[in-house]
Structure formats: C-alpha cells, structure tokens
Amino acid sequence: MTVKVIKIGEDILGANEEKARANRKRLDTHGVLTVNIMSSPGAGKTSLILSTINQMKEKVKIAVIEGDVASSVDAEKVSEMGIPVVQINTEGGCHLDANMVESALNSLPLEDTELLLIENVGNLICPNEFALGEHRRVMISSLPEGDDKPLKYPAMFADSDAVLLNKIDLQPYLDYDVNAFKKVVTGLNPDVIILPVSCKTGEGMEAWFSWLESGVKNKKER
Ligand code: MG
User: Fold this and answer.
1) pTM (global) more than 0.90
2) Hey, which CATH number is domain 2-221, 2.170.120.30, 3.40.50.300, 3.40.50.720, 3.90.1280.10?
C-alpha cells in the first residue's frame, strides 16, 4: 500500500505566496511602497518606525501595520504621531502572514498612502519565510545582540534588501566586530545594503531616510 504524504508546510507557504501576490498587486494599484521590517525583539523596529515618521511625515504619506504577539503599545505610539495604524495581535503566532496583512489593508487609507511600514513580530527564525506582499525587506540587527547573529540566523539576512545595524552608539561599550558582521552578511547576500545607524542619536539615519525616499519616488514614477 502506498502512503500518501501531505506536506503541510509547502501547502501553507504556497497559499501564503498567492495571498501575498494579491496584496502586492493591491498595493501597486495604489502606488504604495511597502516595507517589511524584521528583527529580534528589542533591536529597534518601533524606534526606527517612529524616527522615520518624525523625519518624513511632512514629505511622504505614511501608514503603519504593527505586528505583535500581544498588546497595542507600539500602535499607540504611532497613532499619537497622527499616522494611520493597525495593530495585528498574532496571539502566539511568531510571524505575520499575508492573510493578516490583507485584513489590515482593509482598514488603512491606501488611496492616501505612499509608504507602508510593516513591523513584523520580533523573531529571527521564520518571518522571512512568509511573504506579506511587500516590495522591500529590511532586517535590523543591533549591537547588544552580538556580531554572530548572521551566522546563527542566516536566512533572515540572506532575504533582506537592506540590513540596519542599530545602536551603533554603543560600540565603545561592547566587544562587537562591525567588520566581521559586515563580512558574513555580504557573504550571504552580496547585493545587500548595510547601514550602521543609531535611532537614539540619529547617527547614520540620513542614509536610511534617503534609501527609503528614493524607493518611494521610484514607486510613484512607475
Ligand atoms: Mg516593536
């Protein structure tokens, strides 16, 4: 007797890809550049989003999707800045998926948005496996996590368009080898842009803002 094997993982990922394509098409229709921001908990996703809003909100129409296992503390901070935001609580789920993002898109003013920032659930293991419909993937790694993270969680770095090395202001207090970090990341992903930044002091943030602004501009011209 032959045994039928159902590969759940492949089915789930296949269905997610299809939904992600539909989300991307919808975002394209409205000309919304969408950025999926991933990192471990505490690396600075929310800080990056808040700094970006602060710098760019007069020039670019921004909306935000916040993903967390529980709570709405991050979405409240974004909302206080007058930016449309939806909080997704995954209730234990360790990543966002395209279905969740589709629901969030239904509650956002896409016709009046140029840049959508999606804060994924803090996790270095699986968020990269689930496309959301985004145009860019950004990975944040921070100095206190250690310079070995790309060796331990290579897929997250290999799949990103930009890697932000946050909390660079802590360099004098930590044994962190920035060059070793860059070498491993570039080995995994030769086309990646690596930007050392500090959301706290503003160091290096100009490069991030220009990268994002040129993405928004290209999206509009298309
Ligand atoms: Mg956060």
Assistant:
1) yes
2) 3.40.50.300
